[in-house]
Amino acid sequence: MFGVTTSDDYRPVAWMGRYPVDVTTMLVGVHVVCAVLACIVTAIPGLAGTLNYFVFDSARIWNGLQLWRLGTYAFVHFPSSLLWFAIEMYLLFVFGREVERFLGRRAYIALYVTLLLTPAVLLTIWGLLERSLIAGSPALHFGIFVAFASIYPRVELLLRIQAKWVAVILAAVYTLQLLAYHAWSDLVVVWTSIGVAFLFVELNGAGPELAWWNAVKARFASRPKYHVLPKPRAHTGGVRLESDDVYASIDPILDKISKSGIGSLTASERRQLNRERERLLKKSE
Question: With CB atoms 3.0 to 4.6 Å apart as the test, which of 93, 146, 164, 182 could cross-link to 197 if both were Cys?
Answer without folding.
Answer: 146
